Amino acid sequence: MLEFHYFWTVIGGLVVLALTVDAVVTTLLLSGAGFLSKYLTRFIGRFCMSREREFISKNASVFALLATFVLWSLLLLAGWALIFCGSSEAVIESENKDPADLLSRIYFAGFTITTLGTGNYIPNGPLWQLLSVAAAANGFFIVTICVTYTFSVLTALNERRSIGVAIGHLGHTPVDLLKYALDAESRQLISNQLQDLTLRLQLASVKTDAYPVIEYTHVPDRQHSFAIGVAKLGEACLLSEQLMPSAQSFPKVITDPLWKAVYLITGETNSNGEESADYSAQLLMPYFDQLDAQMNCEEKLKMPPASEKRDRLSAWLAWHHRDWNDVYGEG
User: Count of CB atoms within 10 A of residue 326's CB?
Assistant: First the structure.
């Protein structure tokens, strides 16, 4: 049985400090996940993304976020319960003044950090009264930042999904995007839309850095998938630069900022690019005559920087459990 000693107060204080710092870093500093939640988020997010059930994979980011909140809640309860185990007289029954047992102290810590204040048990002495106030303030603070963070994350997720829908409406494949460049009127319209998407991707990149949990999302609908849409835009930039005649390709003032935005949003994934440039070149074969009949398209795709860009997009697709068939599929 646990013996009451100030040692447990020190341990509990360290636990509370660690989770509070982790919560602040994750939710307020906008610099990524904290040291405790980072690995939990990655494990839960990747696990849910790989599930076959659409509900689980589609809401992988939400499950990873909920797992983080559960972790903070458990550590918060455990930490304050340990703090109140520093003395046998720290918590007493309100009626008969008998010292509370271990389970009762856990109960006391729970209703204190949730600010319920049922009154069955009370802190005994100035020190423990002050710590009770600190526990209530700590619990209120954690709950507040969790609510605020959840709103920000859900907003960022919806923005990602809207970007995926917007890209999907431009065409089924990257080549469909390039066809707009062949007509002067549609060329201007698509250029304006690509510039708008560039700004939205740049903003999405900033939010990904601030809220890493939004990376763990999977949209089953290929045409509205953010991951496929980003790869589609990157591929369109690549094809316009490498395979289309200069008179028909999109100007660099459009493609360069767009590719930079794609580069930022794809980040450094953990995949090594499972799909090669040769593989996607095979998918491109039906479109080669529409892009450039003057030079060998396959050879162009094998050479840097085209191959390096393709490998980056391949890694991005593989990380999201997608491949080039999804980018060039007609469904």
Answer: 18
